[in-house]
Structure formats: structure tokens, C-alpha cells
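INPUT
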Amino acid sequence: MKRVFSLAASYTVLIVWAFIVIAPLFWLITTSFKDKLDVYLGPKFIPWVDFIPTSRWWIRIFTVEKDSLLKPYANSLIIGLTSAFLSTFLGLMAAYALSRFRFRFGFMKNEDILFWIVSQRIMPPIIVVFAIFIMYQALGLLDTHVGLILIYTVFNLPLAVWILSNFLGQIPPSIEEAALVDGASPTTILFRIVIPMLLPSLTATFLLCFVFSWNEFLFALILTYSRTQTMPILIASQHFQRGPQWWDISALATLAVLPPVVITIVLQRYFIRGLIPVGK
Amino acid sequence: MSNLGQREKRLLISPTVILLLFFTLFPFVFTLALVFGKVSFIGGKIAIQFAGVSNWVRLLHDQRFWNAVLVTLKIVGIAITAEYCIGLVLALLLYKKPLGCGFFRVLYVVPMLLTPIAVGYTWRMIFDVGRGPITGILQRVGVKPIGWLVDPHISLYSIIITDIWQWTPFMFLLLYAGLEAIPKDYLEAADVDGATAWRKFVYVIMPLLAPPSIAALLLRSVECFKIVDIIYIMTGGGPGQATESLTLFGYNVGFRAFDLAYGATIAFSLFFMVLIATMFFTMLTKSLRAIRLE
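OUTPUT
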């Protein structure tokens, strides 16, 4: 009896939280299918019962308003993919070097260098953004893809180094040493042994870096104007321009959260198993 | 792996080090100059003059600054506590691997990676007084409308609710992983000794969960101190300055009023707060280790 009760209680909690997670997303998606009146005349909840869904706004953003949407979407994709690739690549190089060789920069040894790299993540962006704004203005990097790619690469690097060095730590160096004895060159070892073994964690790192670039707001707000506007900036500016036109912006926001949702489902296997190493 | 020369080894690590130095250390030093300076624009060129501690004096006498400090601390304090508690409960419930565990686990993680601006926009609609679902439901059961985003006494809590929705997954994830790492025989041994569920929780699970808990709290609070996007879209810092966090205040001063030096000073004060939080949690970890070793 007591067992049944505790089971019922735990399922109640689990289902309530599941509802809390789903409800806002349900609201966002259904709103993008509502007609103007269904938005203006108070809350409507259930499609086909409370209101008749319309795909009018979705058709409109892909036709009439195509240009204003597609450019930020493309910008977000280009900037996110490029910077995620760079962070993962450079992060792999640094993590590999730190886990396999001994370094000494002054008083700093390997662990100190790793700690210094990872600790850069702690820095609030608002502190560096003033200097970067002035620097970019001088270098002509404001409102360019390169500018945002650079800053996102740098801000995701600590994360990439951290995740990858944790995974590299789990791979025994003896495999690589054996290959070395067999006469393999360091390049061969990297591309034929290390990268294949690390492929799942490299994918996870890449996707995570991509999501963080995709979602980033403050740098994009300050360092871009119109040419390289990203999705978050588009949503914010549309919101301030159009005010209560919920349907359009809901469609945009749905499009914006689509890649992260897909990536979360892809990544969930890695999440528990070591993407975030705990207790270190 | 010793046939790689010292130069090649350094070549692997130098891009990361150089990029980080260029984009974090150099701007940090530059900000330090701004903090003690006055910026003027002469003929499109930026000139920084030394201004002593005048920015800091102004900061300490600024009512709006202390308001932003309080807003930020409130958000961090309340949101992090709630996120930890909810995350812990969810992790403990799923740790027992009930039916549907896999589904709940994936679902619970989803909000964490969603674009904060889109999340903020969604909650802005939800909290809307005229057309939002919460007011609609409350009105049907006869509760008077609450000004979720327009009442200066309430708007901060609406922001906090949104933050909890988005970031409880992070706590859940880290605590769940921490629970998974607990050796099963510890719990079995406690079962053999006839420990109740509560005693198992207090004497076996919690002590083992302390290190991942501190890590989760540290990482989350460091992120939470930087909060800006959901506030920007939900209230813009208002009504008045009721929800203006330090980052938003720094942005408003630096890039709206274009007072770069004062904006940098505000940003720097945020750096101190993050530093103190980090040191606090690091010390907590160290003292925990010391207790273990005894």
C-alpha cells in the first residue's frame, strides 16, 4: 500500500514537471498557428476546439517576408557552424597537447594551463565587450561574419578544451604509443587513431558549441547592426517593432528553437555519460 | 610521443592560448583602463584620459547601481535555490528508473538548450495580462488579474520563474549524473543494515552528492550573474528599473547612453561579484575535501 502511494506520488511530480516543460512550448507553437482574432480575444488553448489553426503566417514568412527571415537564419547558421568547427578543432589540438605532453610556461604547468583556459568561461561577456567593441571598430570588424565567428570561437574554446580533455583522459596513451612503436607518424596517429576514437565526443562538443553560438545574444546585440543580424536579434527587434503581433514572432521563435531541440535529442545519450564530468 | 619537437607541441596549444589572450586578457586590461578613465570622441577617434577613481565614486553613490546589484543577487539567490531543489527532486525520482524514465530524462533537458530570447518571448506571452493563458485561467476561477510583468513588485519574480524553467534542467542533469556515479553497493549495504529511505538519503546519498552539487551550484550561479537576454525581451529592465540586472544596466549605460567608461565600471563590479562567488564555492569544495580526509 505504501509502495503504491509513493509510486503514485512520484509519478504525479514527474508528470506535473513534464507538463510545466511542455506547456510554454505548446503555447509558442500553437500561437504561430492562430489567427489575429484568436490572439486578440483572450487566451485560446486547444486547436480545433478553441480556435481553428491557420498556416497563413508560416506561409507568409516563407514567401512575402522571406528576405527578412532567411538572412538572419543563414547568418546564424554560418556563424554557428564555422565557430563551432573552429572551437572544436582548436580545442582538440589544445586538449590533445595538454593531455599527452608536458608544458611549462613560467610557473604554469599543464594543470594550471588547463585551469586558466577553462576559467576564461567564467568571465562575464559584458566586461570584455566594451574593449572588443572599440577594437572591432578600429579593425572594421563590426557587423561582419568574421567578427562574430571570432568572438564565439573564443568564448566556446574553454568549453571545448574542457570536454575534450576529459574524454582524452579516459583514453589510455598506450594505444598511441604502440602505434608509434610500429612506426606511425604523429599525423597518422592523430587522424587514424585519436580522432576516430574521439568522434562521438567531438560531435557532442561541436553540437554544444553550435547551440551556444546559435543562442548567444549580448555580443550579437552589440557587435552587429543589420548585415549580420542573427536569429535572437531578429526576434528581439521584431518584438519591439511589431508589439502585439504574436503570431509572426511565435513562428520565428519556433524556427529559432528548432535546431536546439533536435540537437538536445541527438545529444541526450552523451549528456549522462560524461559530457558533463561531475565531481572533479 | 617524444619524437615531436618542443616547437610542434607548442604549435598545438598556441592558437588557443593566443586567441584567449587576445580576446579576454587584452580586453580585460583595456576595460581596466576604461574604469579609471574618461572617454572622449575627437574627430571619430577615441581618446581615453586618466580620471582617477571618479567612476567608482559615482558608482558607489548611484542608486540605480545598488538597485541592479540587489536585482541580480535576488535573481541568483532565489532562482539557483529553486533550480537546485527541483533538480534534486527530479533526479532522485528518475534515479529509481521508473517506467518512462528515458522519456522524462530527455524532456527535462530540453529547455536548457533553447534560445533564451525565444524562451523569454514565450514567457512574455504567457505572462501577458490581456491575452495570456495564466491570466485567462485565473480569471475563469475568479482570481483578479496579476500584473506579472507590469507590477514592479512582481515582475522580478516572473523573470525568476522563467529562469527556473529554463535552467532547472542543468541542475537536474548534473545531479542525475552525480547520482549515477554513486556505487550501487553503498546503497545495498545501507539496505542490508535496514536503513529507511530518509536515512539513506541523508547519510549516504547527500554526502556523496555534495561535490557534484557544489560544482552545479558554482557553474549555474556564475552563468546566472550574467543574466540579460530574458530580461531584455520580457521587461527591458522595467517597470522602471525593477528588473534591471547588472549586465543590462552596464549595457544601457555603455551602449545606449554611450558612456563607455561608466559602463565598464559597472561591468567590472559584476566581475568582482562573480569572483567572490567562485572563491566561495572553491573554498567550500576544499573544506569538504578536508572533512573527508579526516
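end of record. The radius of gyration of chain A is 24 Å.
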